[in-house]
Specification:
199 residues; alpha+beta; Jelly Rolls; six-stranded antiparallel β-sheet; four-stranded antiparallel β-sheet; 14% helix; globular; binds N-(carboxycarbonyl)-S-(naphthalen-2-ylmethyl)-L-cysteine; binds fe (iii) ion
Length: 199
């Protein structure tokens, strides 16, 4: 993986948070539940772009409509497309931006991102707000893992061998950023979902 600490300056981070406030009014945060068992995630989510990632009792998938409002997801703000162009090294635009919102003791268990058709496309992650303790392992479950901190303004690009690495968020450290007035952490992951017709 490629980690760019402090990639986004304070002004860019503030502008992104402002954009996200408008977008979350149109596409409210929802609480996904685990497939089959229906256990709620501790992280709340929404999406931007043509396709959004959702999880409910039926499973994980990408879909064009918000699961609660039934409306299409809001379009990507230009600022996110610019970041993708700067770091992805991938010649097609992203189709999905999953917005994860962590408050209190929210965390995310170790998992792989494998609901996309095209693993040749990277996943680009942007962190905003409080610092997270992030864990990453290899491509097999149960292997060795390492932990890193992800701070506000950090960008991580998951490509090549890291694209299918197991990863998760152990915890968020309250009081480490003043970017979000009520604290907590936002993570944006920009993803290509479908295989481009011609590469
Ligand atoms: C992908 N989000 O939404 S992003 C997710 O901070 C997710 O909210 C985390 O995992 C978050 O699916 C982590 C950064 C990340 C880091 C390493 C990865 C994504 C990765 C390694 C492989 C694939
Ligand atoms: Fe993930």
């Amino acid at each position: 993986m490629r980690h760019f600490p402090g990639f986004l300056d304070q002004t860019t981070q503030e502008k992104l948070v402002e954009d996200l406030r408008d977008l979350v009014e149109k596409a409210p945060l929802f609480t996904p539940v685990m497939p089959r068992i229906g256990k709620p995630f501790s992280v709340r989510m929404t999406n931007l772009g043509a396709l959004g990632w959702v999880s409910d009792k039926a499973g994980y998938r990408y879909q064009a409509a918000h699961p609660v409002t039934g409306k299409p997801w809001p379009a990507f703000p230009e600022s996110l497309l610019v970041i993708w162009d700067m770091v992805s090294h991938y010649p097609h635009p992203p189709e999905a931006c999953l917005v994860n919102y962590y408050t209190g003791s929210a965390k995310m268990g170790l998992h792989q991102d494998r609901d996309e058709e095209d693993f040749a496309a990277p996943v680009v992650s942007i962190s905003l707000g409080d610092t997270a303790v992030f864990r990453v392992g290899g491509i097999a479950r149960g292997g060795k893992t390492q932990s890193f901190k992800l701070a506000s303004g950090d960008v991580v690009v998951l490509d090549g061998a890291s694209r299918l690495a197991f990863h998760g968020i152990d915890r968020v450290i309250a009081g480490t950023s003043t970017l979000l007035k009520s604290g907590g952490r936002i993570n944006l992951t920009l993803r290509r979902v479908t295989k481009p017709a011609v590469s």
